[in-house]
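Chapter review: from sequence to fold.
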Amino acid sequence: MTAIPTYHYPQQGKLTVLGAGESGVGTAILAQQKGFDVWVSDSGIIAEPYKSQLRTAGIAFEEGAHTADKILASDIVVKSPGIPNTVAIVRQLRAQRIPVIAEIEFAAQYTDAKLICITGSNGKSTTTMLTWHILSRGGLNVGLAGNIGKSFALQVATADYDYYVLELSSFMLDDMEYFRADVAVLLNITSDHLDRYDYKLENYIDSKFRIIRNQRADDLFIYCADDPLTLEGLKKHKPSAKTLPISLMQQFEAGAYLQGNNLVINIPPQERFVMDIHELSLQGKHNVYNNMASGLVAKAQELRNASMKESMGSFKNIPHRLEFVACIAGVNYINDSKATNVNAVWYALESLAPQIVLIMGGVDKGNDYEMLRDLVRTKVRAIVCIGKDNSRIYDSLEEDAQIIVNSSSMRDAVEIASHLAKKGDTVLLSPACASFDWFKNFEDRGDQFKEAVMNL
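The token string follows.
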């Protein structure tokens, strides 16, 4: 087991949790278990299952508002990653030097499990799930948490895992100070969420590199040697941990790389792992990178090659990420609602054969669609726009797309796409945008797509 780092935060007193979702309620239960005087505040309406958990635990809460005086009387505050640091109550807390931290940072204080942490602009959910799948199938006692699965804090309070695989968003990393990853994985960096980073790419890069903060020489840092923004960040952020690169273009003494059609994973003095990429359950160039990262994590835990190969060949992808929905009248329908940025859409288009009817649009986060132009020109039959304002998609892709049309709802978009598609085509929902203009979240968007497809 890893040594728990020192966390310079109050270990007793009044603790307020801001946000009563999965992470917030889990934090409240763990904090209560550790002897804090806990209170939960959510400016929105708390979902009934979470209210029930809080009531059962006897934890006080408010909804529909933040009572500032009560929050500012806290000794420590744990906030939801969805709450920006720019909101008034967070700024007031910081002005009064009251610690405001993330659930992951708070919960990590109370476990000696090995923490395998995965971030990146794209592919982190798939890689996190794949890593958990390989490790658990390999016989390790491993939990799954972070931006996916059940609350990390709740699992620390109620379970006893030897390892955790944690998917970490940049928002989570922003609120961590003393947290240390035993294994840190940075898959890639592309322009995303720049609205939370003053529209400065360098701020977003800095945020992603917080994953290596506090690492030591005997820890591991896995990164993509083919990713230009990661390489740019490495000029400023020098890892203390042992580095293991992944690449489709270079070969390394220690790392993961391609040799012909073989994925090679090598961490001397262990036995090399070799697997034909056509035997991987997840296909496409981006998924080779994902398998390289997950495979390196597994090999570093000394899993057997036979177990790794079986797991990498049997894994099924997560919902809303290139999820096959149905084949209707010879047309395949694919749900990629989790593709909330341009790079994720590029990966989706790259992994599919022409011809594609692409459903995209929503709340634009400052997207640059330039990188899609070649794929749209060569693979996309038509674009069907969803969302309130898709002027940037028109401005950027009008010259490259054969057809661009608007829709009035997801059902309307699917019906239009079904008429535009021909036998052998793929209708792909891959929005490149946030969902909250028409939908509750990306899951709701994907679920509505699947429902509309099944109603054709």
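Two observations follow directly from the output. The first helix runs from residue 22 to 33. The chain has three domains: 14-101, 105-314, 323-454.
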